[in-house]
Amino acid sequence: MQQIESALPLKAQVKIENANSKSITRYDPSQRIGKLIVGNCVDVMRGWPDDMIQLTVTSPPYDKLRDYKGYDFPFEEIAAELFRVTAPGGVVVWVVGDRINGGRSLTSFRQAITFQEIGFSAHDVMIYQKKNTPFMRSNAYTNAYEMMFVLSKGKPKTFNPLKIPTQRHGYELLTHNKLPDGVNKKKLGELKKEKTRTNIWSYAVGLGGTTRDKIAFQHPAVFPEKLAEDHILSWSNPGDLVLDPMCGSGTTGKMALMNDRDFIGIDISPEYIEIARQRLSDLGLSIKSQPAI
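RESULT FIELD:
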């Protein structure tokens, strides 16, 4: 595969299309850079070939907690199309929570089970912890998390584990092979300088935490840029194609393009696509593109 490097700024590379246009009924892989499409993501994905997406990172409008311009959320159809367009070994990161009103709706778990039933593997169930959530509850502990379901089409092809420093490292006598007699046996072993992060990820939310892009908050629900970036780095490689089928303010696209991935963002709202376009255009980066074989 030949690699082509473009010196054009990102604002010249991001293209907005309308799903009603006959010219975008099928996505052209030779134009993979940064693309924003106005339209229903189910209809748009139905025009794509199978197995074309390496990674999806998205947060759907679950439980009608907010008014997303009055648009509906056909979950089952979206899930089916995501499975079809995801490449073997590809991953879908589904960031979702539950309505809390007289008890939890458990919508997030029902969606995860549906994904499993249509063929995805529930590769991991991760937690997105909000460090500074202001929403107090009178009769329960403050809700400070959402679920991050990591769904894979077969065994994940890519895993680049994110590391954190260990408090102790070097060689020590370590306990091993403890038998029913309870006697601790020790042998010399090495404690590494780094270890893989746990599957609970904590992020500050709000301006300065979620993002410094003030325009992003014209969208009613923005997830942290670092959350999107961490998943993009974990489950994809440079040159891979990243999708957000409900891209909202464009957070996934921003972090994908900043990390040398190609990106397609879809949203049914022209207003949200315009927010995403402005955020991506303001980056002023040069991008690499890998054409199809």
